[in-house]
Design goal:
By secondary structure, the chain is of the alpha/beta class. The chain is built from 13 helices and nine strands.
């Protein structure tokens, strides 16, 4: 009975902490819109510097957390704005500070309110957060550019690899500007799906864009590494219509000077429905996205984007794997994944190995696109242990 009583006491403690976190999350909703309003002088500063920050009340157990708005750089080299959160364990940091794990989240949508940091539980999509905090990492979780905030300083940049990679790296720099986060220059990159693409670009770009950061390890789960294959495989199903709606709208804005016009790839029916699709966040509007997108099955594009310009070149440019990086790479792929198909990830791994890279590849049975990051956590932790990160 004594053991049972102790277990119940511990369980009650976790329930109390969870309830406190939810209450804190509710309290924070009041000032949310004001936090995400971009000030007029937002981009006047160096990449990674903080525009504004606020410490959060609803936080994970034994941790502190902050919501941040920070400066970064887009694919054209222009200063832009991103948002996100930083989470750090309580207790004394090791000498030299904490290793920063920069997290790239999977697709949630492209509208401003689809940003994870704006959610009722802003930590919900940091896959493996509790285990990573227990290892002593400070976690920096970007929303990318074009989510959280909107307007000229935060253009839609869905699956624009360079912009996403820069936001991942500058989230680390933002964490370093929070003294209580004890963030060092040592960095681990971890991303899922869209986030896999972002952290791969971050790893490729780090030596030039953020040479002061030491990328110790890179890990991805079902990465959106080969955009040509991803869009071509799904352009005639509802997943492709949803991803395509987000991608084509973003590219039409970012690459207008390259001739990326929606009329050159989408049917008139698709162009009409595109704004409504792009207003909807993925996880909370799956049924509605189906209602809008299902009539477009077979009537979405006028050609395979992999076969017509400028889309063919743009998808290739925003696919990862064009250059090697020095850090060891962990790749996990669910064999039941119907979105990022296993053969595409296996080909990406082969390409990275051909570059001479150190790649550890895990194909996991029973895991699909939604579950692969969680299914990969035991292997990921072993990988980090093996590389003493």
């Amino acid at each position: 009975m004594g053991v049972l009583a102790a277990a119940l006491t511990v369980a009650a403690g976790f329930v109390a902490v969870g309830e406190a976190r939810l209450v804190g999350d509710a309290v924070e909703r009041a000032g949310l819109a004001a936090f995400y309003t971009v000030p007029a002088d937002a981009v006047a500063g160096e990449p990674g510097t903080i525009i504004r920050s606020e410490e959060l009340v609803g936080v994970p157990f034994d941790a502190r957390a902050w919501r941040v708005m920070y400066r970064t750089t887009d694919v054209h080299g222009d200063a832009v704005v991103s948002t996100g959160i930083v989470v750090s364990p309580l207790g004394p940091a090791p000498a030299g500070g904490r290793t920063v794990l920069s997290w790239g989240h999977p697709t949630t949508g492209t509208a401003a309110d689809c940003a994870p940091s704006r959610g009722f539980d802003p930590y919900a999509l940091i896959e493996g957060m509790r285990l990573l905090l227990a290892r002593g990492y400070t976690i920096a979780a970007t929303d990318y550019v074009g989510m959280g905030t909107d307007g000229p300083a935060s253009p839609d940049s869905y699956l624009v690899g360079t912009t996403g990679g820069n936001a991942v790296l500058d989230a680390v720099r933002a964490a370093q500007h929070l003294a209580a986060a004890h963030a060092s220059d040592r960095v681990v990159l971890w991303g899922h799906s869209q986030g896999g693409q972002a952290v791969l670009f971050a790893a490729e770009r780090a030596p030039q864009y953020a040479p002061e950061l030491q990328i110790e390890a890179v890990a991805v789960a079902a990465p959106a590494a080969d955009l040509t294959t991803l869009l071509s495989d799904h352009i005639s199903d509802i997943s492709g219509i949803t991803i395509g709606s987000y991608t084509f709208a973003a590219y039409a804005g970012v690459y207008a000077d390259r001739g990326a016009e929606l009329s050159g790839i989408l049917t008139a029916q698709a162009q009409k429905l595109l704004p409504e699709m792009n207003e909807l966040c993925l996880l909370s509007n799956i049924s509605r996205l189906h209602e809008i997108g299902d009539p477009l099955l077979g009537h979405f594009v006028t050609a395979d984007p992999a076969s017509v310009e400028p889309w063919r070149s743009l998808l290739a440019e925003n696919s990862a794997g064009a250059s090697a990086f020095a850090a060891p790479l962990f790749v996990a792929q669910g064999l039941d994944d119907a979105l990022v198909v296993p053969s595409a990830t296996a080909q990406f791994v082969a390409t990275e190995r051909a570059h001479g890279m150190d790649v550890e590849f895990h194909e996991i049975r029973g895991a699909d696109h939604g579950t692969i990051a969680y299914a990969a956590l035991p292997a990921l932790l072993a990988f980090l242990d093996a590389h003493r990160v």
